[in-house]
Fold this protein.
Amino acid sequence: MAWQWFHRLGSPKWFYEKTTAWMPWLLSISLLIIISVSIWALGFAPMDAKQGNSYRIMYLHVPTSIVAMAAYYVMAIAGGIGIIWKMKLSNMVMKVAAPIGAVLTALALFTGAVWGKPTWGTYWVWDARITSVLILLFLYLGVIALQEAFSDQEMADKASAILSLVGTVNIPIIYKSVDWWFTLHQPASIKMTSSSIASEMLYPLLAMIIGFYLFFTWALLSATRSEILQREIKTKWVKQALLQKA
Amino acid sequence: MQFRFDSFAEFLSMAGHGPYVWACYFAAVLALGYIILAPISRRKSIQTQLLRQEKIAEQQLAMQNNNSNA
């Protein structure tokens, strides 16, 4: 009885049916937050005394970077569960987290580079934080490539899961890089205990982080649902679900 | 809460930082747009794939029936 939820979670059909009702809500609420906070951040948040208006990039750069790393946890943990318990759904989540994480990491690197130009005077430096995030992007691309490289899905999942798990060593390095090698990238401005950022600037940032997390949840569920349809295409319920809508 | 710029032109130029700020927000629109559309278009292609398979299966079945009738 206690483990029933765990077995259910392993059932793609149960997962697909359960999440159907959430999808439009998650997408519209997250987009509403992201768009309205963007307007707030671009036009209404106060200008930064030192960085001027370029700091408005922070409202994209920080949430994108946070969620790009959250995607890695999801991918690695799902990969681990897939290897240990051979859970079908878990392998699907691992696979679809990689392209989402790759796009978010690329966006984090791009916004960081563009923000660096007016602030540091350069688009790119081989600073510890920036380099470790570039490695994060390569890890995502590695998982995507491994998924394409095997014709056997089970082999592809196993190989991707191992790469994801080995790659988790990069995560604490990304976190700690700003403290261990204090070079160009600044340390975190928001901490649980104290924040070195004015509340007028902080609130839109926190709202944007929530918006990005919700958006990521939608993206992960949506991509997993498509993956379920592809892998379970031979089953009766998938055929019914697809042909009904056609 | 007040609008921090005197005119729309100033809002666009952002005292010289406009191109950097707007480039980032434009890139975000592209990235999020891709993340939204990718699973939706994938679902569509799976659907057409299934429809094609069903059609082939139907045709084969019809052909078998014709052969057995003849």
